[in-house]
Amino acid sequence: MMSILIRLFIIFFVICAYGCAVTPDYFRYLESRGTIKIDIVDNDSYDYRVWIDNKVDFTWDGGNREDRLKAVNRIFEAECREVHVIDETPLKRGKYVTGKEAITWVMKIRCIK
């Protein structure tokens, strides 16, 4: 009986974590932790500079280009009709304790309203 309850709890936890991992609130949480940083820029060619660390968390990986694109689209979905990534540059910052290379991706974003 106890093992069934533990399994149900684990399944519930995984479903909740997966559901939260792709919402704008989740990306705001990552922003509050410093995994994602957003700068408004005064530039004619792009509107925002987004800094994304290549940290892995549940169903999101900042090192995966598809996940980064999904993130910027979710972050700006309320104010932008379309989000265009003008440039994406990796900044190597050394290595994590696990040996994985620590990279911060700098994305220049153009918001089409």
Fraction of helical residues: 25-40%
Radius of gyration: 17 Å
Beta fraction: 35-45%
Shape, principal axes of CA atoms: globular
Order of helices and strands: HHEEEEHEE
Number of structural units classed as domains: 1
Please identify the structural class as seen in this structure.
alpha+beta
How far apart, in Å, are the first and last alpha carbons?
A: 55 Å
- Mean pLDDT, all residues: 84
Number of strands: 6
Strand arrangement across the biggest beta sheet: 1-2-6-5
Total helical segments = 3
Descriptive keywords:
alpha+beta, 113 residues, 4-stranded antiparallel beta sheet, 3 helices, 6 strands, single chain, 36% strand, 35% helix, two-stranded antiparallel sheet
Explain how this protein is built.
The chain has 113 residues and is α+β, with helices and mostly antiparallel strands. The protein has one domain. 35% of the residues lie in helices and 36% in strands. It contains three helices and six strands. A four-stranded antiparallel beta sheet has the order 1-2-6-5. The longest helix is centred in the first third of the chain and has 19 residues. It starts with a helix and ends with a strand. 17% of the residues are buried.
Summarize the structure.
Helix content is 35%, strand content 36%. By secondary structure, it is an alpha+beta fold. A hairpin with a 2-residue loop joins β3 (56-57) and β4.
